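G., the chain you wanted modeled:
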Amino acid sequence: MQTTPSPQARSGDGMPHAVPRGCAIIVMGVSGSGKSTLGQRLADQTGHRFLEGDVFHSAEAVAKMRAGHPLDDADRWPWLDRVGHAIGDAVAADGFAVAACSALKRVYLERLVAAAGVPLLFVLLDTDPAELARRLGARAGHYMPASLLDSQRATLERPGPDEAAITLDAQATPETLVRDVWAWIDDRASADGANGTDRR
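Predicted structure as tokens:
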């Protein structure tokens, strides 16, 4: 992975941060964690594309969730492939992209990486179940019912230390989350430079 000084993103601290090139950020987590809000902010700051993973679900999968039935892996594999391919296409066209995708298990992250064909940086938003339930209960017009939250949380595998991932508290303000994401990416870039490595 390489970084470049232009274009630059400005986080909540008002400081410019080099945008990583040839890769994408995926904001992950269960429903109600704020994936889309953070992902859209990161994309807006960089002037790059934001991809909403929910729109890549099949009509059958949406109907299944709307009826209160959790998805299984047979539902998720083709969806993850579609999301990953779209991310890879966006990076090929623009050099960088941001996406929101639940990606609840390590094998799902691996599937996204394989489908995208580019390095992916994962940001997990996680917080108290009661707060997540409150958010879902207040959200209108979305097909994901609050009743599926327990299923999603049971499926969630938090990233390990060997993965290109960071876990942040979803109850932090969007400004704080944006700042923390860019600080993490800056730290990774600094470590790469110190080690003489390239994470592409």
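The mean pLDDT is 85.

Shout if anything looks off.
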